[in-house]
Here is the input.
Amino acid sequence: MTKRLLPVIYLIVLVTGCSSYRPLPVDELNIDSRLTAYKTNHGSIGLSIAENPQSSVTNMKKYSDWYLLKATDLQEKLYKHSDYSLGFGVAGLIAGVAGSPEGAAIGALLASSSTIPAERYSLAVQAQNYQKASDTLNCMYRHLAPHKQGELPRVEILNDAIYQIRIQLRKLQSSITLADPDMEKLKNSLATLMTKEKERKEARAQKDNEVALLDLAKNQHNISGDSKSKATLDAAQVKLLGTKVNLETKIREQNEAQVRTCLATFVS
Here is the structure.
């Protein structure tokens, strides 16, 4: 009996000692190349820091995709160990029914040991943290991508948001702690976002009103052609220009508030 259990014990040692499941460090090697080819290449860690807002938004998408892949990989490992546990348990049951107590013992031993890596390294927690990091970055990307040609926050703000998510993920993975947002911070961020959205709507309404007044001034000038109507037209054009600048500012501020709100769902 003891000799027959030795290979099983050896297998348990191998299974429980798998270093690939350990949470440290967060895997960010060569995201560009591994996202496209999914090949391991020991090189630079993470993506290059963006030098403009558009590149920073692109980096958000890349990190989001990468963390989603990591979450999926960890979930598959978790499911695999669950399947092993079930398979070994059934094998032990069959052996027991067939009258082989040694086979039943081996099956029970393997069934219990196959879940050890998942428990020791908390694969479910790691997967959830990667998933939340991916969702947070995707939240930012979804709201900012339509503005890549215009009203984006400063590149420093966007790069800092990415950095905060990466740091938070490393902290969570090193301590095997599930991401838990600060609800008060999230509440304040949402309140700010709602305020900025209201200001943006008011600025857009003002712009629409100025456009209508400009059209009216153009029509009056076309009819009369005098200096008074020309002065009114010039004033309307200047006012509309200022209104457009104000609207762009409000859209940029709303986008910045959106980034901070997404960030608050992950970084406490």
Observations:
- Residues 63 and 155 are 16 Å apart (CA to CA).
